[in-house]
Design brief:
Layout lengths: L7 E6 L1 H4 L18 H12 L6 E6 L5 H11 L7 E5 L2 H9 L10 H14 L4 E5 L11 H20 L2 E3 L1 H10 L4 H4 L8 H14 L7
Parallel strand pairs: 1-2, 1-3, 3-4, 4-5
Length: 216
């Protein structure tokens, strides 16, 4: 964390990132970062490193797929010139294939997902970029949606490797271990939107990736 000082950290994604954030985005609005992992990360950073000034921005929008990120990439990422960029996308790209199975126009298949993802990462000039895998809170790995979500997680990893950026596998590193001790419903009642426990687990994983020191 010693290298991060007065820099802009931007999180972009879907409803998991959004988490009911205040769209006005006024700097001192207490809910401008939402009520999930982005807010937790910001609070923990400021409480642990009070002398540093972290400019944390939340650009999550519920329901987004990789297509939606592409449409708003210039406005919500490139113009803000973040130093650290975290991207979490893919859940809706998979979910639309299950909750709207006959609406093929809403489906984002692997080739489009990886191709668009690569374009977005390659356009970005952030000093550090980290891709976060999509996840599904289902301990049964043979479940059809869990299997597809795991596949899109692997696709995300492949994009990170191709573009030489960081990757965090939230499914394997965060939620699979958590499901060994907690019932799935305690982490996310609908298997998609995490409880406060699930959001804190995401925050801990990201902070560990940033070499966060709890005893600073």
């Amino acid at each position: 964390m010693s290298t991060i000082h007065n820099e802009r950290i931007l999180f972009i994604g879907d409803s998991i990132t959004d988490c009911n954030r205040n769209r006005s985005e006024r700097e001192h609005d207490s809910d401008r970062l939402g009520h999930g992992y982005v807010s937790f990360i910001h609070a923990l950073l400021q409480a642990t490193y009070p002398s540093k000034h972290y400019k944390v921005t939340n650009k999550g929008i519920g329901g987004n797929t990789i297509r939606d990120l592409q449409e708003r990439w210039q406005r919500d990422v490139l113009t803000l010139k973040p130093d650290l960029l975290f991207i979490m996308i893919g859940i809706n790209d998979v979910w639309r294939q299950f909750d709207q199975p006959s609406d093929f126009a809403q489906h984002v298949y692997p080739d489009e997902f990886t191709g668009t993802y690569r374009q977005l990462v390659e356009q970005s000039s952030a000093k550090k970029i980290c891709l976060l895998s999509p996840f599904y809170i289902q301990s049964e790995k043979g479940d059809p949606m869990r299997k597809m979500m795991d596949h899109y997680g692997d696709l995300t990893k492949s994009v990170a490797e191709t573009c030489h950026v960081s990757f965090i596998d939230l499914q394997k590193q965060t939620f699979d271990p958590l499901m060994q001790g907690l019932d799935d419903i305690e982490i996310a009642q609908d298997r998609i939107h995490p409880s406060s426990v699930g959001h804190m687990a995401i925050a801990r994983t990201i902070l560990k990736h940033l070499d966060f020191k709890w005893d600073n």
